Amino acid sequence: MSEKGFGAKKEQVREAVLVVPGGNGRRIVAPFSRRGFLATSPAAALGLGLLAKDARAQDPSGSSSIVSNFNGSDIPAGDWIWFTAVMKVDGLGSAPVTIGFMGSIQFNVGGTLYVVAVPSSFVTFSPSVSLATTVFSNGQWITMLPISGLAGNVFFDGVAMQAPSPNGFRGGINPVTWQGTFFSTTPGLTVKWQWAAAVYDNVAFGTDYTQLGVKPVDDNQASTYQNSDHAGTPENFKGYVVGGARGGGGSNFTGSYSGTAATTPTPGSMTGGGGGGS
Asked: What per-residue confidence (pLDDT) applies to 54?
């Protein structure tokens, strides 16, 4: 397990912080060496070594990774970074389809590796669904969608991370990597996905995901949020968006998208779990 595997191209990793979002986040500081996390560290006990595994942008096993970066705006301590991921799915037919996902986000700041635990998520396309919805329940995102007729992307995962005190984060963090694995019992699917990140200046933003009002789809007719906002927009907090991460504030509620990666979900189902506001 090398420093390169953690995306630390220029900065040596001296310690690692696991962020389990929800409230102010649970922060576990773990000693790190060139061989990875020390076997006796809390991070090793949580299996963080698995989160650092390299993944290709297209992989038949369902594993996928997208590397991008933040813009030059500083993120003050206490502000929230809202990471969202969206997808399009090829290979849908007339029968219901469920796709599961679990993953993590990681980046290096000043020699500290931040690993953000992302809630697991489930997206179901069904002919019996007429209104697109996203809810956060039992620590995971559940998105229900019509099986046809949707325009644009659909939301499948999101996580909020609060910038640490006392200094927050300087702008220009690079690289920032979101990686994970897609699952489905339906063969023949291809998932094309992207991620984005915006910053919100509201102390309560990430404390309860059920209060965010996350828009489930780009489509301006398919959900209760009949507007042009991107999937993943926290509709109840739009007035608090500011510049930073991959966004410029204003009406850019999710931030700009990363590049696109494609993968075939690995066969099988998934039991949920993960971090996030309840």
From this structure: 33
